Amino acid sequence: NAGVMQNPRHLVRRRGQEARLRCSPMKGHSHVYWYRQLPEEGLKFMVYLQKENIIDESGMPKERFSAEFPKEGPSILRIQQVVRGDSAAYFCASSRESRNSPLHFGNGTRLTVT
Amino acid sequence: AQSVTQPDIHITVSEGASLELRCNYSYGATPYLFWYVQSPGQGLQLLLKYFSGDTLVQGIKGFEAEFKRSQSSFNLRKPSVHWSDAAEYFCATNTGTASKLTFGTGTRLQVTL
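Above: the input entities. Below: the structure tokens describing the complete assembly.
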């Protein structure tokens, strides 16, 4: 019974490159959330998706960031033209339903921009 | 907007001692409240949650938390800490229509032997 799977665990990109982070939710979960954790800070909500739909992207930066959760395959968080300030740990979480279902987190992808 | 405050950035306790981690929330109605633990390099694991009902909530690993509306608090407690409890602890709240959580900044627990 695999949990939330994120890959890669570590990702190094040079400034200006694209970063692509993947998340496979737990089996039976159709709700996916992305959070970002900056050093010495708590997690900040970025985006909430269901299959093929973005439900809430109020925490996403307006430029360079996008997310999708296609009908088939993992959810993808894409960061275009990365900058040093994008360096952080990005966590994906999934839940079975909305509101009353607790979130199950993956182990995160640690992005380093050089 | 709802918010969560964890006033203690870092706490050190001796193994076997009792533990209380503080969490205060800001919201008019009764929020949903959670405590998560994060070990180094890992994701977050849910310790316990409060939705309604009994204000004393039991969680995993011997942890419990008490919801006190009058103090807007949801403090995490453990009667006897083990060295393996050393980690970062996050309080979170969800008052929206989905499981979108607002996290506190975390409390790093160090356990001395």
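Note for the figure: Residues 29 and 95 of chain B are 9 Å apart (CA to CA).
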